[in-house]
Amino acid sequence: MAATKLGILAGGGELPARIVAACEAEHRAYFIVALLGAAEPDLVSGRPHVWLHIGQAAALLRVLRQNGVAEIVMAGAVKRPTWWSLRPDWPALKFYARIGRRAFRDDSLLRAAIHTIEAEGFRVVGAETLLHDMLAPVGPLGRILPDAAALADIVIGLAAAREHGARDRGQAVVVQAGRVLAKEADAGTDDLIARVKSLQAKGPGGVLVKTAKPGQERRADLPTIGPRTVSACATAGLSGIAIEAGSTILIDRDAIAVSADHAGIFVIGVTVP
Length: 273
What we know:
Blueprint: E1 6-10, H1 15-25, E2 30-35, H2 41-44, E3 49-52, H3 57-66, E4 71-75, H4 83-86, H5 90-99, H6 106-119, E5 123-125, E6 139-140, H7 148-166, E7 172-176, E8 179-183, H8 189-196, E9 207-210, E10 224-225, H9 227-235, E11 240-244, E12 249-250, H10 253-263, E13 266-270
Parallel strand pairs: 1-2, 1-4, 2-3, 4-5, 9-11, 10-12, 11-13
Antiparallel strand pairs: 6-13, 7-8, 7-9
């Protein structure tokens, strides 16, 4: 039985392109809804797509139906928009009015959005169901291992990241020498990495620790890293990256390992207590 047509709600980063590549490799029909201000222009070149503002709920549902989409995946980073840039239509206004203050928290917003989309007759699936063997395993991804000091920072970082995530504020923190330097904000992980470059003390670099939020809605916004994350961490002077095994999507596992070895930093999958 042929797979149903997939609608890809595409934000920024490398994940949407990986999903498109997987669909093309499996000869699965797809349609891209590229979010203005987030998706990469190269993603849609020569491919079936439409560009929409995140607030165009009615247009979104209409184009999905017009293009025969049955399943939907949400993929890629989307910065929380200002009310002006949102440009909500009437269905979107009703949606935000209904969920109220939850709209100001990522996971709450995504849960409500998934519920609303499925109420319209679509099925929402997680990116990890489309990208086989893409979840981080336990253990190192390259040849470099964290030393005792880095392992201690990872333990502190896991607790801090989970506490931060429980408040639906973000998924990542950076820890150096037992001190939490910074936590992920609305601007995302790349911004966090850039910020800590000037916050680190002398000595071994800090560790980026990234976990799923407690009770994370797994069909949207699972933690994701790729070679670009490794490069950014190396540029910022970090000593390594620790990610939650089984709950973090790897964009090209082999390239991550090669990049980490080349940069002289570790990348390791860990279990969360």
